[in-house]
Design brief:
58% of the residues lie in helices and 7% in strands. The chain is mainly alpha-helical. The longest helix is centred in the middle third of the chain and has 37 residues.
């Protein structure tokens, strides 16, 4: 969340900030400009509307929140994969051989049935 109480570069009390200066030589509080500041000031640098700048900052904040959520999801996935990789998986050669033989036999039976069906 971004604070909302700002004072312009000219310290004009109650003045609404309407522009933001991107001049790197200015101090932080000198970059915010109200209408009176704009009338009195000549700036050789980029100036942008205050609301547009505020929206840009909030957009960046929203993108960062989305990236944080994605990082959390990826971190959770990583932890799950690490847990799975630590699990010892033991295969029985004889059980796997039996399964392979059964699948081949089942496949051959299926193939024979399909041939019989084609003949009929």
């Amino acid at each position: 969340m971004i604070e909302q109480n700002y004072l312009c570069a000219g310290n004009h009390q109650g003045a609404q900030i309407i522009m933001v200066s991107f001049d790197p030589t200015l101090k932080r509080n000198q970059r915010l400009l109200c209408q009176k500041c704009l009338d009195d000031l000549q700036l050789p640098t980029k100036v942008e509307g205050f609301q547009k700048t505020l929206d840009s900052i909030q957009d960046i904040d929203n993108v960062l929140k989305i990236l944080d959520a994605l990082i959390k999801v990826v971190t959770d996935w990583k932890m799950q994969f690490q847990q799975i990789s630590k699990t010892k998986i033991v295969y029985s050669f004889l059980d796997e051989l039996e399964s392979l033989v059964y699948r081949q036999q089942h496949y051959k039976q299926q193939e024979i049935l399909e041939r019989i069906n084609k003949m009929n």
